[in-house]
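Hi V.,

You were right to ask for the full record rather than a summary. Here it is.
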Amino acid sequence: MMLIRKYKDLKEQSLIKQRRLATVGINYLYMLRKYFMYSDKVAFKILSWLESLATDPELCLLRELTLYFYFIYTNDDQAKGIKLILDQSGYKKISDDLPD
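Predicted structure:
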């Protein structure tokens, strides 16, 4: 939550910093979903923050993972679709490790 308060809008940061911050956010979402199933309030704050990532090809995978975690909470079918796309796009290890 400290990162969300400090870096309110990710687009204002350099791509390198956006990548690092988004990776921290995605890892946190992973941990929340895998080990703390009832932490939706915190997860949605992080998801909202990650939506401020710039639209840049370098951040494409991180944006896709953000969508995946959003759909985990809102639409299981779309989450499964993203997981399948990641698997078919050569990100099998990432796809296999994503929580359901």
